[in-house]
Amino acid sequence: MPMFLNSKDADFDAAFARLLTMKREDSPDVDATVADIIADVRARGDAAVIELTATFDRMQLTPETLAFSADEIETEIAKVSPEERAALELAADRIRAYHDRQMPSDASWDGPHGEMLGWRWTAVEAAGLYVPGGLASYPSSVLMNAIPAQVAGVERLVICAPTPDGVANPLVLLAAKLSGVETIYRIGGAQAIAALAFGTQTIDPVDKITGPGNAFVAAAKRRVFGRVGIDMIAGPSEILVIADKHNDPDWVAVDLLSQAEHDESAQSILITDDAEFGQAVADAVERRLKTLERRAIAGPSWQDYGAVVVVQDMDEAVTLSDRIAPEHLEIACENADDIAARIRHAGAIFIGAYTPEAIGDYIGGPNHVLPTARSARFSSGLSVMDFVKRTTLARMTPEALKAIGPAAETLAKAEGLEAHGLSVRARLERLNDE
Amino acid sequence: MPMFLNSKDADFDAAFARLLTMKREDSPDVDATVADIIADVRARGDAAVIELTATFDRMQLTPETLAFSADEIETEIAKVSPEERAALELAADRIRAYHDRQMPSDASWDGPHGEMLGWRWTAVEAAGLYVPGGLASYPSSVLMNAIPAQVAGVERLVICAPTPDGVANPLVLLAAKLSGVETIYRIGGAQAIAALAFGTQTIDPVDKITGPGNAFVAAAKRRVFGRVGIDMIAGPSEILVIADKHNDPDWVAVDLLSQAEHDESAQSILITDDAEFGQAVADAVERRLKTLERRAIAGPSWQDYGAVVVVQDMDEAVTLSDRIAPEHLEIACENADDIAARIRHAGAIFIGAYTPEAIGDYIGGPNHVLPTARSARFSSGLSVMDFVKRTTLARMTPEALKAIGPAAETLAKAEGLEAHGLSVRARLERLNDE
Q1: ipTM metric
Q2: Where on this chain does Zn(2+) bind (chains A, B) (predicted)?
Q3: How large is the greatest C-alpha to C-alpha distance in chain B, in angstroms?
């Protein structure tokens, strides 16, 4: 049974606090192993990557076969059905259209003394995208990571996608092609992250690494952070549905399960102002679980981490939602737009009964790489902004330096930084002489 | 003697590569100590913070005196001279005017099937700013960290500023007041970061922590990252000056020294197309070093990490500058604006002979918290964007779900995520029945 909470209950605050602080992640501590792997790749390059791939993925590669050849890619892509291809192309088009609007603008203007101030955005030169192998090898994630980079103007976009036992995912290769990826290396794990960060004889280093991965990949990304940029370190996924009784309990049930089926550590929560409806949804979940293909994953997730929270009104739902700061938030109730407008902390909001989260996972347009574990309080989903950076600009006129230079000197002196002051003073003396 | 390189020399590439990979940081490994301090603060709260402050800062605090009182702040601020106050106010006004322009815009639009797509920006609720004690207690850094947060709309902005032996910095307190800081705790080190991230009986936790600090502070920020947001982990500061012979060598020399005086690990590099000018600058540095107050710091920085690089033309200067990806870049040459426009990787550019970097450190308007150690390749300086986060929005119409839902189902099936597909299918069945 998942948790049932009611905000009327005496122990609600304590129970809700427990729900918030529930530890769902139990990544093994692989940091020492990962440190060794990174050091090995830095020292031996290709040879280390090839050896580790033989060990972990049972694949014998050479420097020449680290990457898929153009022919291999075409052969794999030919296996994609027309229906799948059309779906992926529609997804790519919609994701691109959404992210096209995210490009930030340069700015420059004149200050009060004729000085120019502003900034300029430029794209990261090279980005590497990690795509997990096996079950969690998702073509949708390729689109969600690569298209923002492509829109940003990243010139060199490469993928590392392990192919355990040589099994490739044709849809992943097609997704890579649709989003402008140049090279796909069939390597994975910490060795792939190390190769992307430091380079090898065959693999050029990149400036930014994004994409999901297992505990080894996450630990490696943490370790190379600073040398290169990384996206977030994502935790288990989560969904919060706010729904009133005017919904089909079965729709809400499958939405909750669509999160639960990702991972036994995933979390699905329903907040409703109607206890009977909450019970009806829980019943519908149990019904669906009987036949769901991934019930061995979704079942434990729902039992261990699922929750139905009954509130007295939708104001309370908004307050509790912001305390959860959910990765995904579905709002299916009267005045859903108004409720959505009052939410402050959420990675993505899906408004109305016709917007199941799965639409956002694949094809809506917004990114599906979103902040987990309450980090929507301070961070955002992946976007074009992750692949650009800003250079600030300033150009003083002699008049501007005369006007504001003395204040800079005063502050430099107060901070005990004499040369800072002298760099202004030397110029002001010349200007005063003229 | 600093390094002298000439791009004509046979061994230039190797020498320049050494310059790029020079290890300047030698932070002690304090991670284990920091882990203990964080655990202690989580377990014992105020009591741990108070004990550690007594040990490290020789200050006996109580829960009631952890923060400065309003009276104490006014008493300290009264010590600031009118000249210093005016300078700080001018700096705050200019920094605010610059950052006001950085607020990103919300967006929403209709897709091809009447669906609504968009995003909304909201401010982080609470931010904590770390201000080092002692020599590196810079009021300018308070403005540079707090004003972007204030502009973003952060409601609760607090500072942790240790006061070793009880000595406070009146200008820091004034800067805090000018930038809307609510509370100033006189605590520092890893214990302050732990208190900000996890809260204590007296100190409410925040969502984001920014600001510079020593090795303990940096290690603590790394450890609490994820629980809260952090800004970058900054390395030693650096400047690159691109200058032709039409400059006063002494101006360039003091600019190089204004970086060198920060820290023995700071790096100052001149790139010039005129070898004689390069030598003249190096001579001017030596002259200035004879009398500079902080020569004991600036001297070793210049000797150990300084460099003069002679290039054949300004095209080469641009190429080398992008390989350095400098934190601060001064461009003082003919067509400086054109050269600036061609630079891709730099934290901040100061254009023309009348824009010494010190202007940017204090009063120009742009932020002085900038990416170090070549990280301008993939990251930006501090800005309003660091204190806001984006929630993506989507609202499908029945028509939109009919149009794009089947593609989502196809992709869900391809990824083996049945419930994802069912969440779309359940709705489409109803719509098809209608």
Answers
A1: 0.95
A2: 259, 262, 361, 420
A3: 88
Q: What size, in residues, is chain B?
A: 434
- In this predicted model, what pLDDT tens digit does every residue of B413-428 receive, in sequence order? 999 999 999 999 999 9
Spell out where B144-256 has E strands: 156-160, 183-185, 208-210, 229-230, 238-243
Is A416 exposed, middle or buried (CB count within 10 Å of its CB: 0-12, 13-18, 19+)?
Answer: middle
Instruction: Give the 3-state secondary structure of residue A239.
Output: strand
Judge whether residue B28 has pLDDT over 80: no
Q: Name the pairing type of β-strands A388-395 and A116-123.
A: antiparallel
Q: Look at residues B166, B173, B83 and name the one whose alpha carbon lies nearest to residue B137.
A: B173
Distance of CA B118 to the CA centre of its chain: 29
Render pLDDT for A41-80 as a digit per residue (tens, 0 to 9): 999 999 999 999 999 999 999 999 999 999 999 999 999 9
A323 touches chain B (CB under 8 A): no
Mutating which of A396, A401, A430, A432 best tests the B interface, going by the most B Cβ atoms within 10 A?
A396
Nearest to B194 by CA among B209, B178, B179, B182: B209
Q: Span A336-364, mean pLDDT?
A: 97
CA–CA distance, A333 with A352 (Å, rounded to integer): 7
Q: Which residue has the tokens 């304590």?
A: A14
- What pLDDT digit, counting tens, does each position of B214-223 carry? 889 999 998 8
Q: Nearest residue on chain B to A134, judged by CA atoms?
A: B415
The answer to whether B123 and B388 have CB atoms below 8 angstroms apart is yes
Of B294, B364, B423, the CB nearest to A254: B423
A154, A184, A186, A203, B328 from A67: Cα distances, Å: 20, 5, 6, 9, 38
What is the sign of the dihedral through the CA atoms of A333, A336, A340 and A346?
positive
- Under the banding of pLDDT at 50, 70 and 90, the label for residue A136 is confident
Report the pLDDT value the prediction gives residue A303, as an integer from 0 to 100: 96
The predicted structure's pLDDT at residue A26: 62
**CA of A167: how far to CAs of A90, A173, B41, B397, in Å?**
26, 12, 49, 39
- pLDDT (mean) for A214-242: 90
**Contacts with B365 from chain A: Cβ below 8 Å:** 111, 117, 394
Burial B288-309 (b: 16+ CB within 10 A, else e): bbeebebbebbbbbbebbbbbb
* Closest chain B residue to the Cα of A369, Cα to Cα: B392
Among A98, A88, A398, which Cα is nearest to B108's?
A98
What gap in Å lies between CA B139 and CA B178, rounded to an integer?
11
Domains of chain A, earliest start first? 3-24+235-364 (3.40.50.1980), 31-109+125-230 (3.40.50.1980), 396-433 (1.20.5.1300)
Output the pLDDT for position B21.
Answer: 85
pLDDT greater than 90 at residue A375: yes
B 358-377 residues inside an 8 A Cβ radius of A? 358-367, 370-371, 373, 375-377
Quick check: B292 contacting A, CB < 8 Å?
Answer: yes
Cβ of A258 within 8 Å of Cβ of B119? The answer is no
Is a pLDDT exceeding 90 seen at residue B92?
Answer: yes
Q: Which of B120, B179, B175, B190 is nearest to B154 (CA)?
A: B179
Distance from CA of A6 to the nearest CA of B (A): 26
pLDDT at B136 > cutoff 80: no
A262 labeled binding residue: yes
Do A248 and B122 lie within an 8 Å CB cutoff? no
Strand partners, B393: A349, B118
DSSP sequence for B102-144 = TPPPPEEEE-TTS-EEEEEEEE-SEEEEE---GGG--HHHHHH
